[in-house]
């Protein structure tokens, strides 16, 4: 078995797709410079130089990068993950919580926007950082549910007989370990 930490630069792209997703994530590109270099591009190829956001860094799996067109600064897959100066613009009418998640939190990590439905923030992790992410400013560190402590959220769901549907979201719930996801789904399945 190839371990990503020992062979990060030595795993050919054509072999990475067969690695477990956790290893693929360890091999992901995590800097603008590396991303552009891999594609034969430079910051000069863009009118606005990419802006680095330490709170929402670049994260691009190599199997995704492999689908981009080298040398093309207009490649739509690249533009989905490449930071842009426009991300920093202050525009009237726009805010850091465009879908109203903060106002919909009944308890940390449990959102209720619609009757009969609850959304549980399971994790802040994703396998790729899309620049249009509408939860990039979500307070994951303050969300007990996002830290794998779902007891309060599960109790609130169990106590509310009007809830008939629970959506798992985040980040990406499938980025959690199988054991954590199973523990959570078992707790939810036990609710009448």
Question: How do the strands and helices of this protein lay out in sequence?
Answer:
Layout: H1 4-7, H2 13-16, H3 21-26, H4 32-38, H5 62-65, H6 76-81, H7 101-104, E1 105-107, E2 110-111, E3 117-123, H8 151-159, E4 165-170, H9 178-189
Parallel strand pairs: 3-4
Antiparallel strand pairs: 1-2, 2-3
What does this structure look like?
The protein has 192 residues and is α+β, with helices and mostly antiparallel strands. It is 29% helix and 9% strand. It is built from 9 helices and 4 strands; from the N terminus they run H-H-H-H-H-H-H-E-E-E-H-E-H. It has helices spanning 4-7, 13-16, 21-26, 32-38, 62-65, 76-81, 101-104, 151-159, 178-189, and strands spanning 105-107, 110-111, 117-123, 165-170. The chain has a 4-stranded mixed beta sheet. A hairpin with a 5-residue loop joins strand 2 and strand 3. The longest helix has 12 residues, at 178-189. It starts with a helix and ends with a helix. Mean pLDDT is 85; it is low at 1-9.
Let me know the average pLDDT: 85
Give Rg in angstroms. 19 Å
Broad structural category: alpha+beta
Given as residue ranges, the uncertain stretches (5+ residues, pLDDT < 50) are 1-9
Helix content: 25-40%
Q: Order of strands side by side in the largest beta sheet?
A: 1-2-3-4
- Give the strand tally: 4
Shape: flat
Beta-strand fraction estimate = 5-15%
State the helix count: 9
